[in-house]
């Protein structure tokens, strides 16, 4: 019996096409009028926009009691913090995305969206602690099949100026399903429920929907 293997692919998230199109159009216009240095600048910006808004397919781990990373990037903190939605002290995993990271965010577990809270704010460097309370951010309260609550917070960074939310309250998200993105450098904080143990450490590089960041304690 012949088995067909899945071929990994990299697409472009829909929010990226206006940026890519504008840069490509500008490059063409400047080339037509003979302004080659600006044509090359916008050609480079076209490449960067396509690279930034890439949306690769990911193979999400199966099995019960696993939580995957909601974002690509570097783990910059793991430890107890006050959950801004529930007020509880819970373990928080903070993931910093630089401008070269994939910025499409994904659900850590299969869960229902119980609440979404958007907060306008400032644009400090997303790696600073005060970014979690002062920056523009969007918080999602999820409830898994066991009744456990998860909080995900998209935090805009120094360069980021737009948080994109693709879900609404009442939606059911599969583990690894896309739920939004942040443009141009940012951070995602994940608060895990009691009964889960983080399996990542500060300095780890993680990948959305693919890297396991916590598991249910036995």
What does the model show?
- The protein has 218 residues and is of the alpha+beta class.
- It has two domains: 10-56; 66-216, Glucose Permease (Domain IIA).
- Helix content is 17%, strand content 38%.
- The chain contains three helices and 16 strands.
- It has helices at residues 17-32, 36-52, 131-134; strands at 10-12, 54-56, 66-68, 73-82, 89-97, 104-106, 111-119, 137-144, 149-156, 163-165, 172-173, 178-182, 186-191, 196-198, 205-206, 212-216.
- The strands form four sheets. The chain has an eight-stranded antiparallel beta sheet, with no helix packed on it. The chain has a three-stranded antiparallel beta sheet with strand order 3-16-14, with no helix packed on it.
- The termini are far apart.
- Mean pLDDT is 85; it is low at 1-8.
- Our count of domains comes out at 2
Low-confidence segments = 1-8
Helix amount: 10-25%
DSSP strand content: 35-45%
Using DSSP, what is the number of strands?
16
C-alpha termini separation: 39 Å
CATH class bucket of the largest domain? Mainly Beta
pLDDT averaged residue by residue: 85
Categorize the overall geometry.
elongated
- The radius of gyration is 19 Å
Strand order of the largest sheet: 11-7-8-9-13-5-4-15
Q: Mind summarizing the main beta sheet?
A: 8 strands, antiparallel
Q: What class, by secondary structure content?
A: alpha+beta
Summary, kept brief:
This protein has 218 residues and is of the alpha+beta class. The protein is 17% helix and 38% strand. It has three helices and 16 strands.
